[in-house]
Amino acid sequence: MRRKFGPVVKHIVLIIVGLIMLYPVLWMVVSSLRPNDAIFGDPSLILKTFDIDNYVNGWNALTYPFGKYLINSMIIVLGCIVGNLVSCSLAAYAFARLNFKSKRWWFGAMLVTIMLPVHVIIVPQYIMFSQIGWVNTYLPLIVPKLLATDAFFVFLMVQFIRGIPRELDEAARIDGAGHARIFFQIIMPLMVPALGTTTIFTFIWTWNDFFSQLIYLTKPEMATASLAVRQFVDAQSATDWGAVFGMSVVSLLPVFLVFLFGQRFLLQGIATTGGK
């Protein structure tokens, strides 16, 4: 009897916990369709009125239409994705396949940077970027990605490449292929799951980033979606919470779609990397 009902009880508990975790997001979506004066007076998820004025007002409430901020976020995201895919894959190939002096020491130093909070290095980075005139540009947010600064993705790709048989490299080397040809024609096509995982995580983390973008981007025309949503909250006047929730839903939609359509690559990349 216990074996029969045990899995049922576990699934019921998981469903209840999942609903509790999703409640804030669902409430935000429902509240974005309510009038402003009814948002905080009704904690339920039952929608009694359907009002899209919050989305219309929120889209045009700031200095520029909200679409401009979405485009700004997309520019940064695409730059970071390209930078991570190129630089992290090359660094991972070097650590996994090449032999060079102090290789293990450099690999260990790279892993240590994973535990280094961004708040520790943000001040010296800001001073450096300010001196070269990069503040209020997208360069401080994109250029570091071209230098394989995201050690997590380097480590993920290293583990994946180590699982690829070296016999493929040796066969290609016998045919006269060098490291560049081996990497681009043999290793890269087999790294699709790891590259997909890197793309999805980079998109989500960069799109949701607020702290770094707040530090480097102060001009209204440079603001991203996360910074634009913050502009709706004003401590000195009444906050239009309907517009806040509406634009928050709009900002979350790209993340939801990327996770929904890229879930297969995400799970495959994590599973195959962890099994090596």
Summarize the structure.
This protein is mainly α and 276 residues long.
Write structural notes for this entry.
Helix 2 packs across helix 13 and helix 3 (66-97) crosses helix 12 (225-231). Helix content is 70%, strand content 0%. It has 276 residues and is an all-alpha fold. It has helices spanning 2-31, 53-59, 66-97, 103-112, 118-131, 139-142, 151-162, 166-174, 179-190, 192-208, 211-216, 225-231, 241-274. It has 13 helices and no strands. The protein is globular and about 70 Å long. The protein starts with a helix and ends with a helix.
The termini sit apart by 39 Å
Output the structural class: mainly alpha
Shape designation: globular
Q: Helical segment tally?
A: 13
Layout of strands and helices, then pairs:
Layout: H1 2-31, H2 53-59, H3 66-97, H4 103-112, H5 118-131, H6 139-142, H7 151-162, H8 166-174, H9 179-190, H10 192-208, H11 211-216, H12 225-231, H13 241-274
Helix pairs in contact: 2-13, 3-7, 3-10, 3-12, 7-13, 10-13, 12-13
What key phrases describe this protein's structure?
70% helix, 276 residues, mainly alpha
